[in-house]
């Protein structure tokens, strides 16, 4: 299956004197993204429904699930930027998506905030933070993987004993036990839809709220704890020694950013 406007885009690439192997590489990146979008979005699969958040989630997926290097992530961003710039400049989409993504992966020293976990009790008391975001942060702080979020029910959180946290997680679960639901009480079909609900709170919390990045903040908070042995870490993170070695190596390459919210209240 082709991605939208593939023929037009490739003709334009040729007019820019791009080498055939370069065009092939760009096409592969776009194909990978488009297939990801088709599988993970519950919106109509049209190019006009792609948002900057979908691109963020895709890059997040490559980093968290595929363990792609920074240089590889940059390659994907560069290829997608070229494609979406073409669409915007030729009036095939109305919005230039990379306005909100400027420099998303080009910083070769990733910044991860882990201190928010220590401030979770305070965060959940803030009225300006949405219920959905509070639920996500609680689950992340207790080690739940975002890949399980859409299937979690009130019976899956027995390990969380804090009554305030449990009250938040079980809000609106009387008729439907799913922790995350639509406004009409139905199942949320894609993690990207959940992500769209929580991203606006980044303006207040001032750290990345994409599920993959939040999961990494939990991972690095544990790996950064000298009191935990390798066996304890592998159990906590549900990973093997190879993955744990990867996380330890990455911890030396990232910058642990402080928790610095931007509240106006």
TrEMBL record:
It comes from Lactobacillus johnsonii. InterPro entries: CB, DNA_brk_join_enz, Integrase_recombinase_N, Integrase_SAM-like_N. It holds the Pfam family Phage_int_SAM_1. One of its GO terms (biological process) is DNA integration. This is Site-specific integrase. GO terms for molecular function: DNA binding. Signal peptide: none annotated. Residues 1-88 form the Core-binding (CB) domain.
